[in-house]
Every structure is written in structure tokens, then in C-alpha cells.
Amino acid sequence: MRVQRTPSLLSPTICIQHAPVNFPDDLPYRNQRKRLEIGPIEGNALIVTLQDAIIKDKQNIQIIGEQLFHIMDKYLPLIPLIPPSQDGVPSTGKRTLVLNFQEVDYMSSAIFGKFITLNKKAKDGGHKLILCNIIPNIYEVFEITSLNRLFTFEKDLDSAIAKANA
User: Global pTM?
Assistant: First the structure.
């Protein structure tokens, strides 16, 4: 099930099979340079792609964290759930935030606290969080800190979407 990509953070609208999801226009720091690409929706998964190649500045980490928390708290619950057996597509019936790192070449370990909080928010809300497209150097930091046991990782976006909807 493919859907159209969100044109901008200023007016995010994502369509899932003819049923548009109009997210509120209240994302924190939305008037600053875009740090996250929101969308598309794939089944029960909302894809969010980090846009910065280098994530190390304390202020940017704060902005990214606040935006991710807002997406988890306010946007993810708006996604209509696809029942487990609809159209033969298996589903856990849980909304999933897929965090796509395809653009990220380096990130400070200071952002890990934001990811830990995001993961806790997901579990507390009955949702899932999947991280994908993480380069080996960054994944190695997750391993060294043993955070690889806390998160669900997938090699690429397609396998993350499949896992989200399995």
C-alpha cells in the first residue's frame, strides 16, 4: 500500500487509501529549517525521516526531540488502524513510528536520551518504534552502550515497514 509523500511540515497531510489524515499545524519549531520529513503512512506505520546528515548541536537535538515527542503524542494516534486481517495484510493492530536514518552520517550520543524517551512514550501509548537505515558507525554506538537491546532495528525502510505491519 503506497501513499503520497507529505509536501512540507507546515501543512502535513498524508493519505492512506482515500482517507486523508490531516495532522494539526502545531509542530514545535515548524518555522525553522526542516529537521524531519513526516510521511508517508504505510499501513499502521508513520515514516519519519531525519533530514540532517550531522546531528550534534545541542539546540538541534532539543528541536528534533521535541518534534519527535509531538509526533508520537499528537500525530501517531490520528492514524487509522488497519485491522489485522483486512485485505490479507497481516497486522499487529499497533501504530508504529518508523524513524528513518537514511540521511544521517553522524550523530552525537547526546540524542540517545531523546530516543530512549521516545521509545518509552511509544510503549506507554501502546505503539511501536522502529529505527532503520542506520549506518554501521552509528549502530556500533548503540551496541557499545547496549541500547541495541532496547530498540527494534531494521536494515532498510522496506523491512521496517514489513515489521511494523507484521
Answer: 0.80
